[in-house]
Amino acid sequence: MIELKNIEKVYNQGTSREVKALKNISLSIERGEIFGVIGLSGAGKSTLIRHINMLERPTSGQVIVDGQDLTAMSESKLRAARSHIGMIFQSFNLLSSATVSDNIAFPLRLEGKMTEDKIKERVAELLKLVGLEDKAQMYPAQLSGGQKQRVGIARALANDPKVLLCDEATSALDPKTTMSILELLMQLRDKLNLTIVIITHQMEVIKECCDRVAVIDGGIISEMGSTLQIFTDPQQPLTKRLVSAVVRRGLPELLRHTEIVDQYTEGSKAVVELLFLGPKADAPVIVEVATLCKVKISLLGGSIDHIKKEPFGLMVVEVGGSKAEIEHALDEFKARIHRVEVLGYDQRKQLSDF
Ligand SMILES: Nc1ncnc2c1ncn2[C@@H]1O[C@H](COP(=O)(O)OP(=O)(O)OP(=O)(O)O)[C@@H](O)[C@H]1O
Ligand SMILES: [Mg+2]
User: Per-residue pLDDT tens for 179-191?
Assistant: First the structure.
């Protein structure tokens, strides 16, 4: 649905200063996909999303949306193509002197193709779609942030777009309202087969609803993959840092002051990170392995979470036994769960009290 080919964007600030905001960006986004772009402030996220509807023209490269090369279009053709690309913003960008209905009707009146009766009908439909039927005659100042963003979404969908671009659309909202807006976006994707691009600096947003994600750093895509892949197996330091804000990895607090070594020595216990994923995440794996392999397993830390509603658990355990028993247990864990990683060996004689 969306294809960016070798996009470069250079801003000239004054005579001598150049800012390379985007450097050789290539990516393609499938129809019906929710695609996330995450990065730190100034990374180039807004610049990137503004290229998808050509609010910014690339210095070089191609932008192809639904098979049409937007970079090769005349202004008038581009205007028509743009009406099939909706956009919502962090600051909602509503007209404060217009009612909710008039805000939503704005792009329809601007286009001038519908009669007032048809516009009324369409606005009613859109209000229903975003759950604001009872707010039609209110003004933006009378709405909560979440309600304002719903108006923003309804307005963005007025022209029946195929693509919805969201630039930090939930950044001004509290966590609960953020979730309700993300829930709405997922419903809209399913109902309308929309392709949605979400720009955010919040990994929580990605975790909740994105199918795939690109990490952007200094105008470059530093890493890209399925959300599951990025969360469970991040490669780049920045991705690891972003993920660690949501999913705590590594040695738990309990072992911070304990010497953990790389090699097994007689009597030491393996410190193991277990990554559970999907429907099997709640199986009684730890008890099974302890019984089968006759090892002692103590729980040092862990959490159960979800990625796009899929269960996702991370546990750190200590496994005590002979070298062969520990190896057997590691094999049995590997056969049962998504990933097993030995973080090291704890040489203390007593298993911790947990
Ligand atoms: N119109 C412009 N003229 C000159 N430089 C610009 C312009 N727009 C963006 N930039 C520069 O491009 C870089 C990327 O900016 P961009 O707004 O895309 O970042 P961002 O990732 O959206 O950041 P934030 O999370 O703070 O919104 C920055 O260095 C910025 O200063
Ligand atoms: Mg931005």
Answer: 999 999 999 999 9
**Which amino acid makes up residue 26?**
S
pLDDT tens column, 218-256: 999 999 999 999 998 899 999 999 998 888 777 777 777
Nearest ligand to the C-alpha of residue 10?
1
User: Is the torsion defined by CA of 94, 98, 104, 105 positive or negative?
Assistant: negative
| Helix (H), strand (E) at residue 81 | helix 75-82
Helix (H) or strand (E) holding 319: strand 310-320
Non-local CB neighbours of 291 within 8 Å, separated by 6+ positions = none
Tokens of 309: 């509603």
Give residue ranges with CB within 6 A of ligand 1.
11, 13, 19, 21, 39, 41-47, 201
Secondary structure (3-state) at 340: strand
Kindly report the backbone phi and psi dihedral angles of residue 196, in degrees, each rounded to the nearest multiple of 5, phi listed first.
-120, 130
Q: 191: exposed, middle or buried (C-beta count within 10 Å: 0-12, 13-18, 19+)?
A: exposed
Locate the DSSP E strands across 80-156: 85-89
Nearest to 191 by CA among 218, 153, 146: 153
Residue 352 pLDDT greater than 70, yes or no: no
Ligand 1 pocket test target in 7, 47, 197 with most atoms within 8 Å of CB: 47
What percent of the chain has pLDDT above 90?
A: 73
